[in-house]
Amino acid sequence: MPVEYSGITAEHMAVRTAAGLFDVSHMGEMEIAGKGALEAVQHISSNDATKLQIGQIQYSGLTTPEGTFVDDLLVYRFGPSHYLLVINAGNIDKDVPWITARAREVSPDVAIVNSSDRYALIAIQGPKAQEILQTQTAIDLPAIKYYWFAHGEIAGVRGTVSRTGYTGEDGFEVMIPPAMATRVWDALLEAGKPHGMIPAGLGARDTLRLEAAMRLHGNDIDEQHTVVEADLGWIVGWNKPAFLGRDVLHAQRAGGPARIMVGLEMTERAIARHGHDVYHHGQNVGVVTSGTQTPFLKKAIALAYVPPALKAPGTEVEIDIRGRKAKAVVVPLPFYKRAKK
């Protein structure tokens, strides 16, 4: 997947106003099935998989015993005892042995398969995504609720369609056999041309997800920051009796973390980037994890970890940008939220 096809700004704006097509086949997939599958998923992930119905998806954290992130992931419930995990591409070599070892701590007989080579993944995102995709499938797309999926044919290829994405827009992700990926990609691209859909790359994917305040593993979430610190308490099954990191997360929830993720908007002409230090009244109080100038909002925005005392919207801070301190203000997240139909 290239950084860009026709330009990050053009691709970003296409997704916000029409549609964009992303080849995200680099993502990893693992399957957990058989006796003890639910118990395994519950042990390794922060969210509560008992709430998943067949055909439903859940965003979750793959947590360490310290409540930090090995990765973030999507959990699909394919069957009564069959789960598919979608993990980040750069973490496949790390996640597979981690998941395998820790899942078998609670479910020794569970079947665990690295299925990354079995699936190609194409995302169609934007306000016209449903209209375009519907021309290539008999699946009732309006009937698929957010974070649910259905099986069927797409451009004559058997696959799975989920109402998910990483852009902040409505859209779908299509899983098909890798050998058929080019056929599906070409069919969708051709169907989307009259609607203004264009292929989009990694650059636009990053600016889009940042506008929507979606965390990026390796930047915003990692093994040094907990789920509570990342302000993602909604992906924790607080009533689960046990999972990796449970005690630490409960303690942070009760006592408050030492740092918390916030959204920042630059009030001076400058762009905050990953690694830039955050200052308040002359004191170094945190660090920027992601930042950009957004094509759609036309603002310089960033995510950063700061002390909880500074999390209130309107709090003024400064960002050290190559030795110059530029003013910024804490703002509510997400930066961008699409209008509901």
Account of the protein in words:
This protein is of the alpha+beta class and 341 residues long. The chain has three domains: 8-25 and 119-211, Probable tRNA modification gtpase trme, domain 1 (Gyrase A, domain 2); 28-118, Alpha-Beta Plaits, CATH 3.30.70.1400; 233-331, Elongation Factor Tu (Ef-tu), domain 3, CATH 2.40.30.110. It has helices spanning 8-17, 37-44, 92-106, 129-134, 181-192, 202-211, 246-255, and strands at 20-23, 28-33, 57-63, 69-79, 82-87, 111-114, 120-125, 149-154, 157-162, 171-176, 198-199, 260-266, 277-280, 283-293, 300-306, 316-321, 324-331. The strands form three sheets. A six-stranded mixed β-sheet has the order 8-9-10-7-1-11. Helix 1 (8-17) crosses helix 6 and helix 2 packs across helix 3 (92-106).
